[in-house]
Design a protein that fits this description.
Layout lengths: L2 H12 L11 H10 L44 E2 H22 L3 H20 L4 E6 L2 H4 L15 E5 L5 H17 L5 H20 L4 H5 L14 H15 L2 H10 L14 H13 L7 H14 L9 E2 L5 E2 L6 H21 L3 E3 L2 E3 L1 H15 L24 H4 L16 H5 L30 H4 L3 H15 L3
Antiparallel strand pairs: 1-2, 2-3, 4-5, 6-7
Helix pairs in contact: 2-18, 3-4, 3-6, 3-18, 4-6, 6-7, 6-9, 7-9, 9-10, 9-11, 11-12, 11-13, 13-14, 13-18
Length: 483
């Protein structure tokens, strides 16, 4: 091994043994990562730990004559975008499936977070025959305002896809979310599980029969916010993969074989599902020794070789502090999603006593576990700024996150309504810490120089999202069970 490679090995795999905060309190972080979803809830709220939030969006769907209340606001705004929300739901469900026992006392809260989303997604899929509702709220109007969700006065336009205006991407992801959740609820609520699975099959059939991207059908109301940049083939793979996992029906396996997909990827996110679908399907090859799925295992391992820092085929950058760095805007969304795949594939490898090679580099389950731990520990404070990027965790965390409800006084503190532009001065443009702590929220994270300015207006670094958190729940449970 060359000296430079050896140094990289030390940096990424041995630094955790030298650090001051070697083993963060993963159980505390896990509990908070799930509490966060309460702060993103839309609809009529029950009593909850994030008590500064109140009910909102109670007329959602009324413009279309349907009930579309519930679900989640995706980030710091007041819009419901179903593509990232469904991905959030799928990842939470996968976390419960893989790490349910390690979730311990947090398992009921995780199920509740999933059900808050699936109750809404069921409405979207079942309200009107031939339509799949995919969003509520005009994002262009919403982004001109800085107001609490409880005060929303922007138009709550309803968006849908149909046979004439297809959306295989959002439909495939919705099917994945419902199918994955059906597995979560199979034993604890069989009738609900059956409803989820029946609906997932119908939505997946729609995605398969009416091919097209929702970005083309809905244009400026989903782009540039949640454009389907990767196209829809990855969601067809992802959705069919989850339907196969839930049903074991050859119909979905045959469809998977017919779809294909691109050869290589080094990303996993709400937009690009190729790597996730391959890891999901590779499980059958590794754990069940079923070589029907051998190609997916090879593709999953090609992905891993593109991620590992000392792999000859790595295409992934790392900061000097050791953080995986994919994109300048909301980088931690890629870190948490890829870290989930690392811990999950590590688990499969350990079960199968499997190793892989990247060129002449031998990779074990411990290799993946070490890199995943480095990413989780960095997020929780083991980084050059000694800052936790999870709000409310540790002594030093972001205080000025880009989030309307957190940054504006709560209804309890300020009962008077705050209109569309009333929140900009002094709250949005002010330098005071946010009055309401959004417990567990993981923000977009530092820049490529490991620096985080903690500025409310810097949304690419300071905005939390549901899909950053959803992918982190599994790794936190994994490490909470080990340390």
């Amino acid at each position: 091994m060359a000296l430079s490679q050896f140094l990289l090995f030390l940096i990424f795999f041995d630094i955790s043994f030298l650090c001051v905060q070697c083993n963060p309190n993963y159980r505390d972080a896990l509990a908070k990562s799930i509490i966060f979803f309460q702060g993103q809830r839309s609809g009529r709220l029950p009593p909850q730990q994030i008590s500064w939030r109140r009910s909102s969006g109670l007329s959602d769907g009324s413009l279309a004559g349907v009930d579309l209340t519930g679900g989640y606001y995706d980030a710091g705004d007041n819009v419901k975008f179903n593509l990232p929300m469904a991905y959030t739901t799928t990842m939470l469900s996968w976390s419960v499936m893989e790490y349910g026992k390690k979730l311990g006392p947090q398992l009921p809260a995780a199920r509740a977070a999933i059900r808050w989303a699936t109750d809404y997604l069921l409405k979207c899929a079942r309200a009107t025959p031939g339509r799949l509702y995919v969003g509520v709220g005009d994002p262009n109007a919403d982004h001109k305002c800085w107001e609490r969700p409880e005060d929303m006065d922007t138009v709550r336009t309803v968006y849908y896809v149909s046979a004439g205006n297809p959306g295989s991407d959002v439909a495939g992801e919705t099917a994945a979310a419902l199918a994955a959740a059906s597995i979560v609820f199979k034993k604890v609520d069989p009738s609900y599980s059956r409803l989820l699975l029946e609906t997932a099959k119908n939505v997946m059939q729609f995605a398969m029969q009416h091919r097209g991207s929702y970005s083309d059908s809905l244009g400026s109301v989903v782009c540039p916010f949640y454009c389907s940049y990767s196209g829809y083939t990855d969601e067809l793979l992802w959705g069919a993969g989850w339907l196969f996992r839930a049903t074991n029906q050859m119909y979905y396996l045959n469809f998977l074989k017919s779809v294909g997909g691109n050869d290589g990827t080094d990303i996993f996110s709400w937009d690009n599902k190729y790597a996730g679908a391959r890891v999901l399907l590779a499980r059958r090859s590794l754990v069940n020794n079923d070589e029907t799925f051998g190609a997916y295992r090879q593709q999953a391992e090609d992905f891993i070789c593109r991620i590992l820092p000392n792999s000859p085929s790595s295409t992934t950058q790392y900061t000097k502090g050791g953080l995986m760095y994919k994109m300048g805007s909301s980088n931690l969304q890629y870190v948490t999603s890829i870290t989930f795949l690392l811990t999950t594939y590590s688990k499969y490898m350990a079960t199968a006593k499997h190793t892989l090679t990247c060129g002449n580099l031998l990779v074990t389950s411990r290799t993946l576990r070490g890199l995943a731990k480095r990413q989780v520990d960095y997020i929780l404070g083991d980084n050059p700024m000694r800052m936790s990027y999870m709000v409310g965790y540790g002594p030093n965390y972001p205080k000025r996150i880009h989030h309307r409800g957190s940054s504006l006084p709560s209804v309890a503190a300020h009962p008077q309504r705050l209109g569309c532009e009333a929140g900009f001065q002094p709250y949005y443009y002010g330098s005071s810490p946010n009055p309401n702590i959004l417990i567990g929220a993981v923000v977009g994270g530092p820049n490529q120089n490991d620096f985080f300015p903690d500025e409310r207006g810097d949304y690419s670094h300071s905005e939390p999202t549901t899909y950053i958190n959803a992918a982190l729940v599994g790794p936190l449970a994994f490490f909470a069970g080990r340390y």
